[in-house]
Amino acid sequence: MTTDGATPEESDESFEEYADLGATTENAMDIAETSMDRVRELVPDETLADRIRQKSVHATGDPEFQHLLRFTGTDDSEPVRAGARAVLDERPIVTDITMVKEGITGRGHDCRVRKAIGNGAELAAETGMTRTAASVLELDREGVYEDAIAVVGNAPTAALALADCIEDGTRPAVVVATPVGFVKAAESRTRLREVAAEHGVPTITNVGRRGGSGLAAGLTNELVHVASDVRAGDLSIESSPAGRPSGERSDPRGGAGESAERSSGESGDE
After folding, report:
1. For residue 270, which of 149, 104, 155, 191 has the smallest C-alpha distance?
2. Which fold has domain 10-263?
3. C-alpha–C-alpha distance, residues 117 and 133, integer Å
4. Are 153 and 178 within 8 A, CB to CB?
5. pLDDT digits (tens, 9 = 90+) for 53-72
6. Residues 262, 113, 225, CA angle at the centre, nearest 5°?
7. Catalytic pick from 58, 67, 109, 199?
8. How far is the CA of 86 from the CAs of 26, 50, 220, in angstroms?
9. Is the CB of residue 224 less than 8 Å from the CB of residue 105?
10. Is 199 a catalytic residue?
11. What would the pLDDT profile of 199-227 be if each residue is shown by its tens digit?
12. How is the chain split into domains, by residue range?
């Protein structure tokens, strides 16, 4: 028992709920709403893809980042629809590293959230490849990425490995990939886009050297928010590629503001 009479398990659950990312108090909700209102003054608010663009600006604090996003699909909103459906279907969310996993909101979904890093240690030791690449290949061997929400926020080699998996037949429901850095980051996203387009896998990526775990988590959280809007009956993703009606507010819970502050510029493989 803890000093307040709760069991250790109850105490841990209470802390996790309290510490989960996103606004819950009145003051925090007001800050989140005001922040998104300002973002919507800078970013269009007409389609589902615009919601992702808005979240990228919210996560990075840079209005120009909206122009760096790239969407692979029949239209820019297809990856958002695919991601929302995957959330509603409770498909797993698989991240490359721990920091991205910790940035995924625990509210609004029942998806299992797991990280790749920590798997494939023997493969990494035998081949000399990075641990993140080996971990992606190991989880793919186990079938984990099939119909999953695959998220890469840090490691370019994880994105390259995921591209290889897609080329070999794996079909994630959607890929969110914003690996950051000066070595292989832009190239890995380019290859991922090319392979995903060839094999019909919806993707959300960006161009350039920028990116990071906070951005990847924030964009994934927006997929959760879109799914929450669908579940509540406030949005249909089947009838039209458009997003919520102009002026309807995005759910501020689990936004990327907090996670981006921690990790928008990290680089390198774990």
Report:
1. 155
2. Rossmann fold (3.40.50)
3. 9
4. yes
5. 999 999 999 999 999 999 99
6. 75
7. 58
8. 31, 19, 11
9. yes
10. no
11. 999 999 999 999 999 999 999 999 999 99
12. 10-263
